[in-house]
Design a protein that fits this description.
Length: 186
Amino acid sequence: MSISLKKGNSFNLSKKEVSLKKIMVGLGWEVKSNSTLDLDVSVFMLGKNGKLPADEFFVFYNNLKSPDGAVQHTGDNRTGAGDEDDEMVLVNLPNISEAITEILFIVSIHEAAVRRQNFGNLKDAYIHIVDVETKREILRYDLDNEFGANYDVEFGKLSRIDGDWVFVASGIGDNKGLQGYIDNFA
Ligand SMILES: [Ca+2]
Ligand SMILES: [Ca+2]
């Protein structure tokens, strides 16, 4: 049975899903009106100091794979059309570089400031984690309405805690754009 997380909840994947190796982190959204909105999922793989060990550990639509091969973005979706996952990231947990202690999943609206869009334009935005081998959904986090005025959100993160991978539904809204995160973590 899938677990539904609320903001701030965490789930120890290593302890509760002991055989889990490959996960798919999927993001889905729908746009309220007829306007088009391009949501992007980006991944920041951070070391102990809270920074990217190298630029290539920032995985997004223009850098689809991390240097350790553990994180793979399956490609940009520009519209969110359809009920299935719109953007996906594959994570091979045992292959993640030892240097990485935290993996952030940032969801941002492409050119939000120019297009004057925010999460208030969205409905049914979610992030979920699926076991790649069994296709079973392990957990799910539906984005709350509270982010209506934001155009980017740290949706969730994987933290390496005492050797375990723990998923945290962080849900931290912001308006700094993808470049703002890059400036923080580079
Ligand atoms: Ca996109
Ligand atoms: Ca969709």
